[in-house]
Design goal:
The structure is a single chain. It contains one helix and ten strands, in the order H-E-E-E-E-E-E-E-E-E-E. By secondary structure, the chain is an alpha+beta fold. The chain has a single domain, classed as Lipocalin. Strands 1-2-3-4-5-6-7-8-9-10 form a ten-stranded antiparallel β-barrel. A hairpin with a 2-residue loop joins strand 6 and strand 7. The N and C termini lie far apart (about 55 Å).
Length: about 160
């Protein structure tokens, strides 16, 4: 009887974890879809670079992960190409975010759902901190990227304005 009780508690715990996982992943649903628009990258002195940005975002593995692929083009030239995977780690009770760039770099970032349709993500570099804010309202996606050398003063370096297709 004792073994049966332990087994029942374990099963209920697993069901609770699975439901929490599904509930957390549902918070990412506004991101899913094809998005197109413009982006402005300011990566140093001079004028910002204007690109056409395309984001293809879809759930994979029966909703276990969200795959994000972004391509930025200046004319026919690809200037930005990244793939990211977001999922919810039920044991740690937080999202994980890992990105891969076309030049071989990878990043493990933090990711937070701030409110419905509002997301923050970022990471640290040897030079400082990077922070991105995504706001989705209806079919509109606005994302800003900021850099801080000291963690207090922030400077915008990217802005994307996308429309869901």
């Amino acid at each position: 009887m004792k073994k049966l009780l332990i087994l029942a508690v374990m099963i209920l715990s697993l069901e609770s974890t699975a439901q929490t996982f599904k509930d957390e992943m549902k918070k990412l649903e506004p991101l899913a879809g094809q998005w197109k628009g413009s982006a402005s990258y300011h990566m140093g002195p001079g004028e910002p670079q204007q690109v056409q940005q395309h984001e293809q975002i879809e759930f994979k593995l029966d909703g276990a992960i969200l795959q994000i692929e972004g391509i930025g083009k200046a004319g026919d030239r690809i200037v930005h190409h990244a793939l990211a995977i977001v999922n919810f780690n039920a044991q740690e009770k937080k999202f994980t975010f890992r990105s891969y760039l076309h030049d071989g770099r990878t990043t493990d970032a933090w990711f937070e759902v701030v409110a419905p349709g509002k997301y923050l993500w970022g990471f640290s570099t040897p030079q400082g901190k990077m922070r991105y804010t995504i706001t989705i309202t209806g079919n509109s996606w606005i994302e800003t990227g900021e850099f801080s050398a000291d963690g207090n003063s922030w400077m915008n370096f990217i802005e994307m304005n996308l429309t869901k297709q």
